[in-house]
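Reminder to self: tokens first, then the designed residues, so the page reads top to bottom the way the pipeline ran.
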């Protein structure tokens, strides 16, 4: 019996008992130290060793936690990212630190060539970035950061400055990236969705001819076990897609890979609700944005919901077919406040099912189906549990009144953040730390759960902070 089978046979017969709350003060202090160690002066790196630049959705999650330590730093985090926005509205997934050696991370700035290949799309000239994007958590983060200290936010004109950037970002996604023609945004590279190595990408990726192994050097293997990282074959396909996108001057719609992803679109919808609140704070009507968010929720259900399976699935835009792989992405729409009750009930049931094990077999919700053929408890996004996705699920459960499940998940997240030294991700069965430790969003979201627990109301409307 292999290691995975041994773990499975052991844990499925004995539900996990959540640990008591960790010591709040100790966890707060150590999480703050992680964020201080990863702070560059204007932004926060996810990890000093493995990810030495600024990442887009990492910074959004980090700002959500930083608001409890320093609302000013949280505002600066987002402002630094938005300063690198392209003229067409896209927020790049990496903003490169020019003081970091080129060989410290691949793909490096000389691969993306943003200032030249991205010129037609309005790439900035004063900073080097990647040319792809990441999930749009930014408006939600900006709204939560504002609420942490409204007086400071208003005095600095924080929302006044970031609102046009965020509105342009959403326009880009809702228009340039509506590759399926139904209203949802498509991702054109697995790195854009954030869950890079998910089995949900295997079928659409299989059409891509990989770049030759000799044409790139994987810096990620200098800091992690090859057994835990994407295979060379998959990485070659990632490089091929990125190369073709770059060589096409970052024009959208021409590539072979285009996928409507439930998590990406759910976060866009959640941020659209947040953008409506920001508009209202600035004295403008937010009704149209709330209406758009509700319409997008209906489209998400129409396009990606499978009632028989009780979860959302990715749609391969190039074939028009749903991808029948159960990834945690298909549960993330639980964060949406206007999701119909029958969909909420089915999602909660699936989250607690044998496929994901919430409250039973697993400590945290895994990134992929426990029973799936591609499941691996340690390999990047093919089974390990991640703290940001579990933070989103906790938020969704609480939004829809599942207070007991939300509280139990919160305790589990805090316990494993504590015992794993704020790991990048963990084995969903054992809680063993995987990837980098001292990871930015793990520390930040732990702070948010520590400090926001008493303010969550669990209201259906989603106005919980």
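Designed residues (465 positions):
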């Amino acid at each position: 019996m292999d290691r995975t089978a041994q773990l499975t046979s052991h844990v499925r017969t004995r539900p996990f008992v959540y640990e008591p709350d960790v010591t709040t003060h100790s966890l707060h202090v150590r999480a703050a130290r992680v964020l201080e160690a990863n702070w560059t002066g204007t932004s926060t790196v996810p990890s000093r060793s493995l990810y030495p630049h600024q990442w887009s959705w990492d910074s959004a999650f980090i700002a959500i936690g930083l608001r409890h330590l320093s609302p000013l730093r949280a505002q600066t985090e987002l402002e630094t990212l938005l300063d690198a926005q392209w003229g067409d509205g896209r927020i790049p997934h990496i903003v490169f630190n020019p003081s970091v050696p080129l060989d410290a991370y691949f793909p490096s700035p000389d691969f993306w060539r943003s200032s030249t290949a991205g010129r037609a799309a309005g790439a900035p000239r004063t900073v080097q970035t990647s040319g792809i994007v990441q999930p749009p958590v930014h408006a939600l983060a900006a709204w939560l950061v504002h609420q942490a200290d409204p007086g400071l936010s208003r005095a600095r004109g924080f929302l006044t400055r970031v609102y046009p950037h965020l509105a342009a970002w959403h326009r880009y996604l809702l228009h340039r990236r509506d590759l399926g023609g139904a209203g949802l945004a498509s991702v054109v590279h697995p790195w854009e969705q954030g869950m890079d190595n998910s089995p949900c990408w295997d079928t659409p990726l299989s059409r891509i001819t990989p770049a030759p192994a000799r044409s790139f050097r994987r810096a990620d293997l200098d800091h992690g076990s090859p057994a835990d990282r994407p295979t060379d074959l998959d990485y070659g396909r990632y490089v091929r897609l990125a190369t073709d996108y770059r060589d096409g001057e970052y024009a959208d719609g021409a590539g072979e890979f285009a996928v409507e992803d439930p998590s990406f679109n759910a976060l866009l919808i959640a941020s659209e609700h947040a953008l409506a609140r920001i508009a209202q704070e600035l004295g403008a009507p937010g009704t149209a944005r709330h209406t758009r968010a509700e319409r997008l929720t209906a489209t998400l259900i129409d396009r990606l919901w499978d009632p028989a399976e009780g979860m959302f699935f990715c749609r391969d835009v190039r074939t028009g077919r749903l991808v029948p792989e159960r990834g945690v992405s298909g549960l993330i729409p639980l964060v949406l406040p206007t999701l119909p009750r029958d969909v909420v009930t089915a999602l909660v049931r699936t989250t607690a099912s044998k496929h994901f094990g919430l409250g039973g077999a697993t400590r945290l919700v895994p990134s992929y189906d426990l029973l799936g053929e591609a499941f691996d408890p340690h390999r990047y996004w093919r089974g390990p549990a991640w703290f940001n996705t579990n933070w989103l699920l906790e938020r969704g459960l609480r939004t829809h009144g599942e207070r007991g499940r939300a509280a139990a998940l919160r305790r589990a997240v805090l316990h494993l953040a504590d015992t794993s030294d704020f790991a990048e991700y963990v084995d969903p069965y054992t809680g063993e730390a995987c990837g980098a430790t001292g990871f930015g969003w793990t520390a930040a979201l732990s702070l948010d759960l520590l400090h926001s627990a008493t303010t969550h109301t669990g209201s259906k409307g989603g106005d919980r902070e």
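The domain at 25-452 is CATH 1.50.10.10 (Glycosyltransferase).
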